[in-house]
Write a structure and sequence with these properties.
Rossmann fold; 2 domains; 9-stranded mixed beta sheet; about 35% helix
């Protein structure tokens, strides 16, 4: 089977969030199942520093009535022979950021991702390679199903659209619909109010739809950010498949980013990582003081309003707290000031660092994810492998993967709360802190249970392959 995956971001070449991790791990896992999987993404600034590239072809892509040149380069994922095609056009992609600067999208975002979507389809013809299925991801490539139905791109090719986060829909003024090149009949499926909504049109036109967890697939039918009607109309074509973890990248036994390797069988290195992180950031060790970590984009979705409302009460539990992330300037300021107010208890790294993300996972005792909603979540899965007990809100993929600790039944891998309130979050955190402090033996058993779980991509990739086989 031949699968083309098209994504606006793919790790390690360009990453803004979890979409990049999924777009990198899934094709490699499919390759292990003997699938001819190939990836198409933009050639952003700096990509050439992360992979050896060779030019494979040039052609024109129609965007808003103009022919824009695409220069296509081929590279490979690190330590893999899965090909990645980089669609190059400096006018669109030679920029400081992937999507935009100052918290918003670039003004020509529609033009940029029309170029990516149409260019990926034209590339199939240039490669003389006919995919059985084209797998589009999020609003950036949600035009692909409509283009295929309009006869643009390879014939007799199925398509799947994965919704990684319904909060981001690609909404543009309706008078810009002509930029897409779709005829008025096809464009109408994207019409919502006075806007063109790319994700809505993708939902309507795609052969099959997926979200990144079964729970999220159920939730969006009821609370779908305004797209409930479109989603309910495709209920029978919608599947929820939990994301996996690339254990080649996220494995404390082989992780080059952390200070000391460790495993479920030899866990001593985890304490060394904690000691080194506390020393590096000048946090006081404390007597049986658990380290609580958060790694996240600083946006409302992630539950930071709960954290801010409960912050002083959290610290009163005797914890140490470390945050890594960037985003909303108000949130950045809050955590930066918190680190100044509590210099021996709080560290705020207002940046993005792959190395520090791994270090925080390895050093923390508890990982906090109080999300308002969470389509899948990856950090709770990383945390389980790193022996960092997740405390999460029971929503979306978090409730598919984290289960309440139960000592009597010797079950569970973390702590959950349901009500979206500071008090409910504090209650779950208090249960975790109490177990950590009062019952080290049971804490060790809980931690080991999570470390031995298998959340690899192999099972998820097989689920996607079964979906593709329905089409190809």
């Amino acid at each position: 089977m031949r699968i083309m995956l098209v994504s606006a971001e793919v790790a390690p070449f360009a990453k803004a969030g979890g979409l990049a991790d999924v777009s990198a791990a899934l094709p490699r896992a499919l390759h292990d199942l003997d699938v001819d999987a190939r990836v198409v993404m933009p050639k952003y600034r700096g990509v050439e520093e992360k992979s050896a590239l060779c030019e494979v072809c040039r052609f024109s892509v129609p965007v808003n009535g103009l022919d824009m040149e695409a220069i296509v380069y081929q590279g490979l994922f690190p330590n893999s022979d899965v090909p990645v095609y980089f669609l190059g056009n400096d006018h669109y992609f030679d920029r400081a950021q992937i999507y935009g600067e100052g918290g918003g999208d670039y003004p020509d975002a529609l033009d940029r991702f029309v170029f990516l979507s149409r260019g990926a389809l034209l590339l199939c013809e240039r490669l003389s390679w006919q995919p059985n299925v084209i797998h589009a991801n999020d609003w950036h490539t949600a035009l692909i199903p409509a283009y295929l139905r309009s006869g643009i791109g390879p014939r007799d090719t199925g398509n799947v659209l994965t919704i990684h986060n319904l909060a981001y829909q690609g909404s543009f003024a309706w008078d810009r619909a002509a930029v897409t090149g779709l005829d008025s009949t096809m464009a109408e499926s994207f019409h919502r109010g006075d806007s063109m909504n790319l994700l809505q049109g993708g939902i309507v036109q795609a052969d099959l739809l997926t979200t990144v967890s079964p729970a999220y697939a159920s939730e969006v039918l009821v609370s779908g950010n305004g797209l409930e009607e479109a989603l309910c109309s495709r209920r029978d074509d919608l599947a929820g498949i939990v994301n996996g973890v690339d254990y080649g990248e996220w494995n404390p036994n082989t992780d080059a980013h952390i200070w000391a390797d460790y495993s479920a069988d030899l866990a001593a290195g985890k304490e060394e990582n904690k000691a080194r992180l506390l020393a590096e950031l000048e946090l006081a060790p404390g007597e049986r003081a658990p380290l609580v970590g958060m790694i996240s984009r600083l946006v409302n979705q992630k539950g930071f309003d709960l954290v801010m409302a409960a912050f002083d009460r959290m610290l009163a539990l005797g914890i140490r707290f470390i945050l890594l992330g960037t985003g909303d300037p108000k949130l950045e300021e809050f955590f930066s000031r918190a680190a100044e107010r509590f210099p021996t208890q709080v560290a705020a790294l207002v940046t993005f660092s792959e190395q520090w993300a791994h270090r925080i996972e390895a050093a923390s005792d508890i990982f906090l994810m109080p999300s308002r909603f969470e389509p899948c979540g990856l950090n709770q899965l990383y945390s389980l492998r790193y022996g960092t007990v997740p405390v999460v809100r029971a929503t979306g993929g978090l409730r598919d993967t984290v289960f309440e600790h139960d000592k009597e039944r010797t079950s569970g891998n973390g702590f959950l709360f349901s009500d979206y309130t500071p008090e409910a979050m504090l209650g779950a955190l208090q249960r975790a802190v109490t177990l950590y402090r009062d019952d080290p033996e049971e804490w060790g058993a809980l931690r080991e249970r999570g470390m031995r779980e298998d959340h690899s991509w192999s099972a998820s990739a097989r689920s996607y392959l079964s979906l593709y086989e329905r089409l190809g």
